């Protein structure tokens, strides 16, 4: 196939940057159709993608004979229905993370992809982030020995702007932020540790944003100043919050993985800084990232025992992503992989199985959190489905 892939887009909101990244006319792909219920989003899409068919109806894009593949970039609770409909139309589909907001709906998507033989890809872009790939490569090279425990802290400095002013703030649309926001980190944790989670236990609360009375009226749109890089601090100064807020703004999660690894994850939406910190401890060393973007460092302590020492035994600078772009260059690499997968199939660094397992952990952790921290077992995936996706979605079992 030498002509551009014709890309249909469902949802042109906060993740519209993915559609813009995929639009490379004359260089392999172009957005030819966009569906969004918001007239402003449709107007924006029409300006960015000249000549594209713009409609409020997602079915019109899915069923468009001039669309080769579809990006599902809509709110989380809509992913499953739209993904399944696209798969049944036999069009390869990119589903923004999280795959869905319940385990059952994730499994519906995977079963539909398997039954229809249509290619399914999930947008876990952090697997392409330079800092994550650097840590994974150091672990594979034996820098810390065998991984025994992983600790993740996620400081969500813009949480009040991004997650408490729209649908993200409501359980019915996300299950909770321990699923919606943590799905990235749970997936990375699994990737670094080399196994999936068996059991979880969590605690959390709505400590800050639940007490803020400055809510929009139902149906009132977000203000143009809903997000600012330097303002809206401290958190109690936030205005125009979502009318309904029933998800937690801080959470603590403990995990036991199938490979014997113990892990912990912490998420807070009212910190002043925004970044992720991963600490990986093996039986022969420890590594930790300081910053998570270009120019950050991954530091390794593995030569000797000591008291506190800021200077590590080795330090590695995180490079710019190839060609730059969103998330430290990860988004263009994610789209590169998706377009290659649409054309040729084969193995990918992202994984529908891993995406499903991240959601399963988030769901069970949220149940635990809301049940006084009672531990929960994570439901396994049907082994036949896992094998199908682990083989690159190849029914012959030989890979492509």
Known CATH architecture of the domain at 127-327: 2-Layer Sandwich
Which structural class fits the helix and strand makeup?
Answer: alpha/beta
- Describe the strand arrangement of the main beta sheet, using strand numbers: 14-13-12-11-7-10-9-8-15
CATH topology of the domain at 127-327, which one?
A: Dihydrodipicolinate Reductase, domain 2
Number of helix segments?
A: 13
The major β-sheet equals:
9 strands, mixed
The CATH class of the domain at 127-327 turns out to be Alpha Beta
Assigned CATH superfamily of the domain at 127-327: Dihydrodipicolinate Reductase, domain 2
Number of strands: 15
Distance between the termini: 16 Å
**Order of helices and strands, N to C?**
EHEHEHEHEHEHEHHHHEEEEEEEHHEH
Content of β-strand:
15-25%
Write a brief structural summary.
This is Gfo/Idh/MocA family oxidoreductase. The protein is an alpha/beta fold and about 400 residues long.
Explain what this protein looks like in three dimensions.
By secondary structure, the chain is of the alpha/beta class. It has a domain at 127-327: Dihydrodipicolinate Reductase, domain 2 (2-Layer Sandwich), CATH 3.30.360.10. Helix content is 32%, strand content 22%. The chain contains 13 helices and 15 strands. A nine-stranded mixed beta sheet has the order 14-13-12-11-7-10-9-8-15, covered by helices on one side. Strand 5 (93-96), helix 5 (103-116) and strand 6 form a beta-alpha-beta unit. Helix 1 (16-22) crosses helix 11 (326-344). The longest helix has 19 residues, at 326-344. It is globular. The protein starts with a strand and ends in a 10-residue tail after the last helix.
